C-alpha cells in the first residue's frame, strides 16, 4: 500500500472533511470582509410590514402568518442559496422579535434570543392542537364590559406553557406579546414537544433543521449542499449544536487570539513616548478588536448560525470585547495626551502644570471607564443601577469604606483649585500632631490620592491630599522676599547702656546691609523685647532682597556672623540655660589658638578671600577631593 494514501475510507473522509472545513473557514472569513457592506445595503430584500399585536388573537395570527413566510423564504434559500435570499429569510425571522416581550433579556443578546425563540415556538405550535380562531380572545374581551373583564389580560395556548400577555409599561405598553416567561422557557418547551408528531404541513419538512440540533442551518458562505456532505460525526449534536459548528466556533476564537497576539507583538516593538506614531502603533491592538469582532460576530450569527446553549455567546463576547477595547483606547489616549502636551516644545511651562494635566486626564479616564463598564453591564443583563440604588446597608458600608478615598480626591480638587503648591515648588508645612515645621522639601507629584514631597535629605514624604489640604503650607518658591527674624538671648549681667549700644549697632548693621529692605511697608526692627527666663531677649526683624531660599540662607548667615561681632564689641554675651552648678578648675581657652584663628580671618579679609557668603569658585576647585577617604590607617585605605 502506498504510504501516502489513506489507509481506510474513514480516514479518507476525515482528511477530506478537515481540508474542506479549513477551506470553508478561510473563504468565509475572507469573503465576509468583502460582502458584509453589500449584505447590509441590499435593496432587493423587501421589508415586511410590522405584525399586528393589538390582541392575543392578532398576535397569534401574526405569528402563524410569519412562520408561513419564514417557511417560504427558507425553502427558496435551500433551493438556491445566495446572500440576497439568506438576507430575505433572516429579515423574516427578525420580524418575530416584534412579537415578543424581551424586557428580561439583556440588550446585547436580544437579537439572537428572539431569533431562536421564534423557531422554538414554531416547533411547539406545529405539534399541538390549535384552538379555533374564535376561541382566542380579542382586546375588547378584556374591557370593562367584556366577558373577560374580571381576568388578567393574558391568554395561554391550551395544553402548553405559551402565554400571550399585555405589556403594562414601557414603550410597548398596551401590546399583546409572548410573555417574558414564555421567552425564557421556549427552548425547554420545544424539547418536550419534539416527542409529538407534526399536525400540519409546511414547506419545511422538519422545523428542527432550523434549530441546528439535526443537520444545522448555515449561511450562504457555508451552503447546505456542502454541509450535507460532511461525515456523520461532524453533524452530531452536542449541547444543542452540531459538532462542525463547535469546531468553527473554537477555531474562530483561536484565530482571534493569534491575530491579537501578533498585533500586540508588533505594537510593543517601539518604546512608549509622546510621538503620535507611537500612539497609533499602540492603538492598533484595541482598534483591531473593534474592527475584527463585529465581523466575527456577523460571521458566527449569519453564516455559522450558532445555536443551543451558546446561542448568545457571540453577542456577549462581541459586546464584552467592544467595551474592553474602548477602555483600552481610553487608557492609552489618557496616558498619551498629558505627555504630548507637556513635551510640546512651544508650550509655555507656566501655562499648564504637568501634574494638573496628568490629573485631569486620569479623572477623565476614570469616569469614562466607569461609564463604559456600567453601560456594558446593563447591555449584558447585569442591573448595575438597580444594584447600586438598592444596595441599602451594603451600599452604606461601601460608602463609609470609600470615605477616605473620596476625601483625598476632594483634597486633590482643593489643591488644584487653590494651587497653594505646584510640582517643583519648594515648600514646608506644619506638623498636625506636633510642634514646629517639617523640613523643607520639593513637591514631586500631586496625584488623585496623595502628594509626594522630596526633602533635602532625598527622603520622600507621601501625604494624603485630605491631610495636606488641612495643613499650614508655606510655599517658599513664590516668596517675593524673605523675612529674617531672630531672637537673641543675652546674659542678665548686661547693663542698660550696653543694651542701648548693642541695639544701636544692630540697627546700623541692618540698615547698612545692601540686601535688606527698609520701607514703611517693610520696616527694619531691632528691639529689646523684655525679660525672659534666664535671658534678656532682643528681636531682629528685616526683609531681604531675594526670592531664592538658598540665597536667603546665605544672607542670613552673613548677618548673624556680624551680629556675633557686634555682641562681642558691646562686651556682653549670649545667655545659656543652666540648672546645675559644676565647680571645677577650668584651664580656659587656648589663647594662642584663638589668636591664630583670629589672625587668619584678618588675613582672609585683607586678601579679599573671606569664604562668606560663599566660597570662591577657584578655591572650591582647588580643594575638591584633597582629603583622604577612607582616612589613613583604615583597612580600606591600606588596600588602596
UniProtKB/TrEMBL annotation:
Keywords: Cell membrane, Membrane, Transmembrane, Transmembrane helix. It comes from the Bacteria. It is a multi-pass membrane protein. This is Mechanosensitive ion channel family protein. Residues 490-571 form the Mechanosensitive ion channel MscS C-terminal domain. The lineage of its organism: Bacteria, Pseudomonadati, Pseudomonadota, Gammaproteobacteria, Chromatiales. Residues 406-477 form the Mechanosensitive ion channel MscS domain. PANTHER family: MECHANOSENSITIVE ION CHANNEL PROTEIN 1, MITOCHONDRIAL-RELATED, YNAI-RELATED MECHANOSENSITIVE ION CHANNEL.
Amino acid at each position: 500500500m502506498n504510504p501516502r494514501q489513506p489507509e481506510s475510507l474513514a480516514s479518507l473522509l476525515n482528511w477530506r472533511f478537515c481540508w474542506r472545513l479549513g477551506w470553508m473557514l478561510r473563504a468565509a472569513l475572507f469573503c465576509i470582509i468583502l460582502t458584509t457592506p453589500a449584505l447590509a445595503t441590499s435593496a432587493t430584500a423587501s421589508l415586511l410590514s410590522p405584525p399586528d399585536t393589538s390582541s392575543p388573537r392578532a398576535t397569534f395570527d401574526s405569528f402563524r402568518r410569519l412562520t408561513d413566510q419564514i417557511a417560504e423564504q427558507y425553502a427558496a434559500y435551500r433551493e438556491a442559496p445566495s446572500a440576497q435570499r439568506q438576507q430575505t429569510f433572516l429579515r423574516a425571522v427578525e420580524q418575530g422579535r416584534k412579537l415578543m416581550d424581551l424586557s428580561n433579556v439583556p440588550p446585547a443578546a436580544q437579537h439572537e434570543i428572539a431569533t431562536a425563540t421564534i423557531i422554538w415556538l414554531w416547533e411547539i405550535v406545529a405539534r399541538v392542537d390549535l384552538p379555533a380562531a374564535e376561541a382566542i380572545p380579542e382586546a375588547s374581551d378584556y374591557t370593562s364590559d367584556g366577558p373577560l373583564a374580571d381576568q388578567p389580560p393574558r391568554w395561554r395556548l391550551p395544553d402548553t406553557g405559551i402565554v400571550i400577555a399585555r405589556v403594562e409599561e414601557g414603550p410597548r405598553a398596551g401590546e399583546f406579546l409572548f410573555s417574558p416567561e414564555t421567552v425564557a422557557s421556549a427552548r425547554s418547551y420545544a424539547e418536550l414537544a419534539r416527542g409529538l408528531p407534526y399536525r400540519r404541513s409546511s414547506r419545511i419538512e422538519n422545523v428542527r433543521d432550523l434549530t441546528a440540533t439535526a443537520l444545522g442551518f448555515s449561511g450562504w458562505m457555508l451552503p447546505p449542499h456542502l454541509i450535507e456532505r460532511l461525515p456523520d460525526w461532524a453533524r452530531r449534536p452536542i449541547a444543542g449544536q452540531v459538532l462542525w459548528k463547535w469546531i468553527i466556533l473554537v477555531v474562530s476564537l483561536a484565530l482571534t487570539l493569534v491575530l491579537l497576539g501578533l498585533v500586540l507583538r508588533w505594537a510593543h516593538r517601539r518604546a512608549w513616548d509622546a510621538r503620535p506614531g507611537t500612539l497609533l502603533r499602540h492603538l492598533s491592538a484595541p482598534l483591531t478588536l473593534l474592527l475584527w469582532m463585529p465581523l466575527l460576530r456577523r460571521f458566527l450569527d449569519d453564516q455559522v448560525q450558532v445555536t443551543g446553549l451558546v446561542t448568545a455567546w457571540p453577542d456577549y463576547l462581541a459586546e464584552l470585547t467592544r467595551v474592553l477595547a474602548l477602555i483600552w483606547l481610553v487608557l492609552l489616549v489618557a496616558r498619551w495626551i498629558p505627555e504630548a502636551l507637556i513635551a510640546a516644545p512651544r508650550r509655555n511651562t507656566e501655562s499648564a502644570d504637568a501634574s494638573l494635566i496628568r490629573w485631569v486626564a486620569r479623572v477623565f479616564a476614570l469616569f469614562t471607564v466607569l461609564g463604559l463598564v456600567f453601560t456594558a453591564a446593563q447591555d449584558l443583563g447585569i442591573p448595575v443601577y438597580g444594584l447600586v440604588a438598592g444596595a441599602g446597608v451594603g451600599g452604606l458600608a461601601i460608602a463609609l469604606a470609600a470615605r477616605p478615598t473620596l476625601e483625598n480626591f476632594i483634597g486633590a480638587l482643593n489643591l488644584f483649585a487653590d494651587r497653594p503648591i505646584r510640582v517643583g515648588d519648594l515648600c514646608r508645612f506644619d506638623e498636625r500632631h506636633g510642634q514646629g515645621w517639617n523640613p523643607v522639601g520639593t513637591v514631586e507629584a500631586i496625584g488623585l490620592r496623595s502628594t509626594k514631597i522630596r526633602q533635602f535629605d532625598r527622603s520622600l514624604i507621601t501625604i494624603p491630599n485630605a491631610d495636606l489640604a488641612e495643613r499650614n503650607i508655606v510655599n517658599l518658591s513664590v516668596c517675593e522676599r524673605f523675612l529674617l527674624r531672630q531672637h537673641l538671648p543675652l546674659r542678665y549681667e548686661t547693663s542698660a547702656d550696653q543694651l542701648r549700644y548693642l541695639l544701636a549697632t544692630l540697627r546700623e548693621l541692618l540698615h547698612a546691609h545692601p540686601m535688606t529692605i527698609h520701607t514703611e511697608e517693610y520696616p527694619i526692627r531691632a528691639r529689646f523685647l523684655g525679660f525672659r527666663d534666664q535671658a534678656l531677649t532682643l528681636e531682629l526683624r528685616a526683609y531681604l532682597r531675594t526670592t531664592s531660599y538658598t540665597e536667603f540662607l546665605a544672607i542670613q548667615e552673613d548677618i548673624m556672623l556680624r551680629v556675633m561681632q557686634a555682641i562681642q564689641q558691646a562686651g556682653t554675651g549670649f545667655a545659656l540655660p543652666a540648672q546645675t552648678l559644676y565647680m571645677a578648675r577650668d584651664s580656659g581657652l587656648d589663647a594662642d589658638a584663638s589668636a591664630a584663628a583670629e589672625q587668619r580671618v584678618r588675613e582672609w579679609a585683607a586678601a579679599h578671600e573671606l569664604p562668606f557668603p560663599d566660597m570662591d569658585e577657584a578655591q572650591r576647585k582647588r580643594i575638591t577631593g584633597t582629603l583622604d577617604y577612607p582616612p589613613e590607617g583604615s583597612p580600606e585605605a591600606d588596600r588602596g
